[in-house]
Amino acid sequence: MHLPFSFAGHGNDFTFRFVALHNIAVKTFPFFLVNSYSYRSRRLASKKGLLFGAAFRLAAALSLLIAGSGAVLSQNDTGSSLPGSTFEISGQIRSPDGRKTVEFVSVRLERAGGSLVDQRMTDSMGRFRFSGLSQGQYVVSAKSPGFSVSAQTVDLNRFIPRVFLPLQLVPETSLFASKNTARSAVINANVPEKARNEMDKAEGALALKKTDEGILHLEKAVSLFPGFVDAQMLLGSTYMELGNFIKAEAAFQMAQKIDPKSVNARVSLGEVHRRQKDYPKAEQFLLEALTHDDEAWVAHYTLARVYWETNEIVKAGRQIGRTIQLNSQFAEAHLLGGNVFMKIGMPENALVEYEEYLRLAPAGQSAASTKDLVQKLRKSLQNKKQ
Asked: Quick one: three-class SS letters along the chain?
């Protein structure tokens, strides 16, 4: 069930109308320009009815912005675009040895004819899901630097409406990687073979957690060819994880210089500055990234963390809502969404987000503390109802 609401426009201003489920109260608020998304009613209302005043206006704004997890148009609640609708492809990606799940792997879903349907990243448990599909044949493929998954063909029909694919990454050969890895086409054509070989060795070493060895190969790769943008990006990411922000920033800046339109380089620079608590610079790079690609969900998520850490809760809510809209399977976005709701005093809505985080990442880094918090929230909310 969705909470009914409507918009009325006057120039650049809009009003936002809620109708409460239990006390049939109607309230109209001034609101900014947004898309008319509906959302699950328990994210917006409690059994005591709607909360009014400044806190509710803020909550209403954040509720719509966090509403992207459903990304459901209110006038199409039963459409095929709904998450959990009849046809669905999901799966989990594991490491080459099969022992670990792998997050942040790019999974691509195409029609059998080759047209792109959707593209998502695996969550912290290596899982992915494409829902709201129609009948027909699809091709699922996945790539991670230096690794890939063989394309899998799936036939969805009324007898087999849902398919789960257990997938395993395999190392790419140097020849395959040089032809098919998604790197800058102009630069890649000029990358010397020796530099590509060093990149391949670096990726193999890093996959085995041999960080120092990986860095040596990456440094060799960029010394052989300074314009090797992928090597610069991987080098920056490796240094950043080690806490060497000076070298990380230098590598990301070089990548941006090589490819001035690079969204990934700007997002990475934003993250480097966020980790150093240089929030103005972090915000600058992330906003620049979004001017190039407003659908870069990692940029929205990182910007949400910047605003959360600087206590700009409304801005954080907007960015985390956009993140969930673009990638509803990213568990940590729901965790931060829950924190935002707790901050503005809406524990029922926070509970929904925390439960979604636990569903997506039952063994995630924050799973234990979140489970404890969920239990306390349930108990507290139950006591209030009595």
From this structure: CECCEEEEEECCEEEEEEECCCCCCEEEEEECCCCCECCEHHHCCECCECCCCHHHHHHHHHHHHHHHHCCCEHHHCCCCCCCCCCEEEEEEEECCCCCCECCCCEEEEEECCCCEEEEEECCCCCEEEEEEECCEEEEEEEEECCEEEEEEEEEECCCCCEEEEEEECEECCHHHHHHHCCCCHHHHCCCCHHHHHHHHHHHHHHHCCCHHHHHHHHHHHHHHCCCCHHHHHHHHHHHHHHCCHHHHHHHHHHHHHHCCCCHHHHHHHHHHHHHCCCHHHHHHHHHHHHHHCCCCHHHHHHHHHHHHHCCCHHHHHHHHHHHHHHCCCCHHHHHHHHHHHHHCCCHHHHHHHHHHHHHHCCCCCCHHHHHHHHHHHHHHHHHHHC
